[in-house]
Amino acid sequence: MWVLWKQLLIYQKEQTNQSGGIRIQAKLDQIDIAIIRALQKDARASFVAIAKSCHVSVDTISKRFKKLKNTGVARGTTVLLNPKSFGCDCVASFGIRSDFSHIQEVLEFLRKIPDIVFSTQTMGRHSIIAIAIVKNVAKLNQVREVIKGHSMVREIITSIWVSDILLCPSNFDLQTIAGDV
């Protein structure tokens, strides 16, 4: 955990400016982290409340948040959703192995599956990770079989999440849920 915390303190993001190729390294301090944590907990947290908890001015918080956005550390604020409140009791990740030359094809295939809310290329044992949100384990097995049926999928490992899950709405198909209500 401490290693992750240290990595957060010295978050690096490569960014190119108009004059070409300058690497910007954003260094986070305790105030930046307090801003991030407050907004992660409640995206509508006021800068006044954050400033009070940090013992700094509202202007300081405003400028710091703008800096976090400009350096790419923060890309906005959002609402987190609990899939269980929509009747989706099963969230799982799939580790998928595919030949390197077919990864993009498999990713495009995954993005067409309504129950897959996120998929990306990875490095390691699996070349792709995908996250599914479904009503139950039976539906999860159906999704798994669809993925397994793709001719370029060599292996698929399923891990069901057991802790509380909160997801960003851009990764959660609300139209599908709204249709089931």
What does this structure look like?
- This protein is α+β, with helices and mostly antiparallel strands and 181 residues long.
- It has two domains: 2-70, Orthogonal Bundle (Arc Repressor Mutant, subunit A), CATH 1.10.10; 83-180, Alpha-Beta Plaits.
- Helices cover 38% and strands 19% of the residues.
- The protein contains seven helices and six strands.
- The chain has a four-stranded antiparallel beta sheet, with helices on one face.
- The longest helix is centred in the middle third of the chain and has 13 residues, at 58-70.
- The chain starts with a helix and ends with a helix.
Work out the count of structural domains.
2
Mean pLDDT over the residues: 80
Strand order of the largest sheet: 4-5-3-6
Oligomer: single chain
Structural class: alpha+beta
Q: Note poorly predicted spans.
A: 1-23, 177-181
Principal-axes shape call = elongated
CATH architecture annotation name of the largest domain: 2-Layer Sandwich
How would a crystallographer describe the biggest sheet?
Answer: 4 strands, antiparallel
- CATH topology category name of the largest domain: Alpha-Beta Plaits
Q: Using only CA atoms, what is the Rg?
A: 20 Å
Q: How many E-type strands?
A: 6
Specify the CATH class of the largest domain.
Answer: Alpha Beta
User: How many DSSP H or I helices?
Assistant: 7
N- to C-terminal distance: 40 Å
Helical content, roughly? 25-40%
Which strand-content bin applies to the residues?
Answer: 15-25%
**What would you give as the CATH superfamily of the largest domain?**
Lrp/AsnC effector binding domain/regulation of amino acid metabolism (RAM) domain
Order of helices and strands: HEEHHHEHEEHEH
